[in-house]
């Protein structure tokens, strides 16, 4: 068991949530019965989903026999997908005002998910040390860079509006009576591992809590649910409308695959970041 766990963490570098799911399947899987028939039965027992298929592939790779067995074919048919609904600029304004009206934390959660085009799991790992505070404090009118941990524990940098960065600092300045820049910088260093978002018990929030906050408050504000991932899509659309290339948007969202357009564009992550800053300024 520990060997497979180490393989997922160190060699595959999968995220904590994915590893947890795979280990659940691992505990149900009987390696003694490993055969083509057993794999077929096991996969079909778990509805032949992409998750169970991915677990089997990783397990076979761990055992060093990636091509020894075949996975059962998936049912042919059109997969029902959730509809990603567009959000107008006016609706975004209404949402932002409503979320901040409920609480500063809710408003900040909404703002940062949208500005950083973040996944739910990414917002949960942000600490005070995730921000490039020293760089931003030297130029507080500029965007503040924020490093986040994406899928597969891959790091990427997003941009946060200066107003949001300032509101975060002001929140802590008032709470801890930080009256000088030296005190502010010392506080940020000493509390760099402190999570930005926590639940009422002071512990890390869950993905479900983030999902519920966005969905429930958006329903109250607009009369319909808005899911966190729809904010990510909306942000991507905004960047595209501003003339930012698909390659740069892909870097910003942390995508591993892009459309054919990326063949014609060759930017580094830093170049993509600068291009986005220029367009947003």
Give an account of the 3D structure.
The protein is 56% helix and 4% strand. With 281 residues, it is mainly alpha-helical. The chain starts with a helix and ends with a helix. Helix 5 (89-102) packs antiparallel against helix 6. It has helices at residues 2-11, 16-28, 36-45, 50-62, 89-102, 104-115, 120-123, 133-138, 162-176, 181-190, 207-222, 228-241, 246-253, 269-280, and strands spanning 144-149, 155-160. The chain is globular and about 65 Å long. A two-stranded antiparallel ribbon has the order 1-2. The protein folds into two domains: 2-62, no CATH class; 89-280, hpI Integrase, Chain A (Orthogonal Bundle), CATH 1.10.443. The protein contains 14 helices and two strands.
What keyword list fits this structure?
281 residues; mainly alpha; hpI Integrase, Chain A; two-stranded antiparallel sheet; globular
Write the layout of secondary structure elements.
Layout: H1 2-11, H2 16-28, H3 36-45, H4 50-62, H5 89-102, H6 104-115, H7 120-123, H8 133-138, E1 144-149, E2 155-160, H9 162-176, H10 181-190, H11 207-222, H12 228-241, H13 246-253, H14 269-280
Antiparallel strand pairs: 1-2
